[in-house]
Amino acid sequence: MESLVMSPLFLLFDGTDFCFLLGGGVIDFVYFFLLLIIIIAGVYPILFSCIRQLMYVYGWSMWEGSD
User: Fold this and answer.
1) Which of 44, 49, 52, 65 is the most exposed place for a label (fewest CB within 10 A)?
2) Per the UniProt record, which residue ranges are transmembrane (predicted)?
3) Is the CB of residue 26 less than 8 Å from the CB of residue 20?
4) pLDDT of 21-51, one tens digit each?
C-alpha cells in the first residue's frame, strides 16, 4: 500500500530532481516546497481532527475549558 502511495512522488522526483539539495536549481526547490505545503495542508486537518476526537473521547478536551 505504501508503494502505491509513494510511487507518484518517485515519478515527480526521479533522483535528478533532488540535485537541488546539493546546490541545484531553484525551480526544483520551489516545486518541492509547494508539494510539501500541499502534503501538510492535506494531512494536518486529518491529524488535528483525530487528536481532537481522541481528546474528546478520553475527556482531555482543551476546547471546553476546565471548570
Assistant:
1) 65
2) 20-47
3) yes
4) 555 566 677 788 888 888 888 888 888 888 8
Give helix then strand counts, H and E, for the chain: 2, 0
Residue carrying C-alpha cell 476546565? 66
Task: Give residue for cell 530532481.
Answer: 17
Question: CA torsion, points 34, 40, 41, 42, in degrees to nearest 10?
Answer: 110
- Show Cβ contacts of residue 32 under 8 Å, excluding neighbours closer than 6 positions: 13, 17, 20
- Contact of 9 with 31, CB cutoff 8 Å: no
